[in-house]
Amino acid sequence: MTTTTLPARRRALFHPLTVTGVNRLTEDAIEVVFEIPDELAEDFSYLPGQYVALRTTIEEEELRRSYSICSAQTAGELRIAIKKDFGGLFSTWALESLTAGMQMNVMIPQGTFTTTIDLADQKHYVAIAAGSGITPIMALARSVLAKSPGSRFTLVYANRTAQDVMFLEELADLKDRYPARFSLNHVLSREARSAAVFSGRLDHEKLQILLTELIRPSQVDEWFLCGPFELVQLCRDTLKAAGVPQTEINFELFTTGHPGTVEGSRGRRVVEDPGGANQRITFTLDGRTALVTTPVNARETVLNAALRVRPDVPFACAGGVCGTCRAKLIDGEVTMDENWALEPDEVEAGYILTCQSHPVSDAVTVDYDA
Ligand SMILES: Cc1cc2nc3c(=O)[nH]c(=O)nc-3n(C[C@H](O)[C@H](O)[C@H](O)COP(=O)(O)OP(=O)(O)OC[C@H]3O[C@@H](n4cnc5c(N)ncnc54)[C@H](O)[C@@H]3O)c2cc1C
Ligand code: FES
Fold first, then answer.
1. Regarding the domain delimited by 278-367, which CATH topology (the fold level of the hierarchy) does it fall under?
2. What is the percentage of the chain residues whose pLDDT exceeds 90?
3. Pairing with 55, which of 17, 178, 187, 232 sits 20 to 30 Å away (CA)?
């Protein structure tokens, strides 16, 4: 989620891309390099902080997972980083099986966790990241430092041990290249560091110390938060209490931390009941309008129902965090379970996350093209 000027939304299309490299970052994290052919260069242009969704089939199940781009814009390639989630289907497969030469279906870049970077800017950006949350921050830090010579970037990066630190060398290189403009602060929860504030869990107390001794919130122009749900919430609350306006805080969640949400949002098998009580969902996608009915008792999401008649309906996380499934509610009423992707003004304007929205009225009409 971001508070800066939103990038224009693009149709969430998949294209097959070739993997040209798989680099080991840590024991359980890899960087994956995709080749972008000239004819797809425009489709795969991106802003730092955006992500792509990958689609594959594992054990006959179609999986889609989102991964943030870690590179600053580079002609002819795009890089992402995947950290193995213990017990996770896609990330475990990727770490064990993804090799150079393979092709993968990749969705064109999406997301609003970004900012506009200007050559003339004199800004101070601060990022707080944990674990794989560093991925979009790498792209942001690299872009800010390279494109805005008058701006500074401060990073607080939390991990368990030094061995878990993704992009350890790349971060050190950035520090060497921009010693006066890049402040790099590792916090390790299970290793002692020279200063007590950088050792142990990044909790409320530690954040307070960092916000008094290391970072003066009044001298920061924009904040970027990315990591586990609890850490992002803690940082948002602490920054709010420190008087930081919400408009200066950007955050990205990889999950909502609510197991079970994803399964219920998409892919659930719902059988239409011709004789029972049904709700009607009308939706427009790419200029074509379709109608699907859903049993009232199934409490199905708009996305789940729409996929029954149009498999190309856009979605990625199915968990209310990425915003790919956004549509405008034209008619009727819905309830939305989770929303970690839409800005308040988008909600005000009638946009919904279809992966989280259940019809409440007898009929609803949504427009994916709006
Ligand atoms: C916008 C966005 C950007 C992202 N960027 C990145 C990134 O840059 N790098 C990155 O590594 N990740 C990123 N993610 C997260 C990524 O999309 C995946 O969610 C992550 O890799 C886990 O996927 P998986 O298929 O491996 O795990 P899943 O199979 O989806 O499982 C997720 C977790 O649930 C647990 N689980 C699943 N099923 C069960 C069950 N039945 N019982 C108990 N536990 C269960 C698993 O153990 C695992 O810990 C991003 C997510 C979003 C939304
Ligand atoms: S698919 Fe990610 S928010 Fe709905």
1. Ubiquitin-like (UB roll) (3.10.20)
2. 82
3. 232
